[in-house]
Design a protein that fits this description.
Elements lengths: L1 H24 L11 H23 L2 H22 L7 H23 L26
Helix pairs in contact: 1-2, 1-4, 2-3, 3-4
Length: 139
């Protein structure tokens, strides 16, 4: 599951990147926001969510991994849907948004359904003849 979630975050990040690149190339595209240092800081913080989720998905143990993916996938899905309400979207932005929101929602759903790994079996004693039930004195 770790590799799947990490790969999905990489997929999402490439979609974010290419959509933003298309925005820069579109001569008709206007920015509905005033681009200030504060706006750029907020945008950077927002993009750190999927960047960090990519790394956490690959490296973290089950519990923090699962909850990070549920949270990050949910937040990024809502942000992507909200972005469609800021200004009328172009065709390419709408197409990318459908892919991005679907992928981040899939991440959240997969993480939600991710079952805890089975506990490792207890180690058998090295010499079974020497094992004693608890409370029995040795002879």
């Amino acid at each position: 599951m770790k590799n799947t979630l990490s790969a999905l975050w990489i997929f999402v990040m490439f979609n974010y990147l290419y959509c933003d690149l298309f925005d820069l190339m579109d001569p008709a595209q206007t920015n509905p926001f005033e681009v200030t240092p504060g706006f750029l800081l907020a945008a950077a913080a927002l993009m750190e969510i999927p960047i960090t989720a990519t790394l956490v998905s690959f490296l973290a143990p089950y519990r923090p991994n699962r909850w990070t993916n549920i949270g990050a996938g949910s937040v990024m899905t809502l942000v992507q849907i909200w972005s469609l309400t800021v200004a009328p979207p172009t065709g390419y932005y709408l197409a990318y948004s459908v892919v991005e929101a679907s992928a981040t929602a899939l991440i959240a759903v997969l993480a939600w359904r991710w079952a805890a790994p089975a506990a490792a079996p207890a180690e058998a004693p090295a010499n079974p003849r020497r094992a004693r039930p608890p409370g029995r004195p040795s002879s």
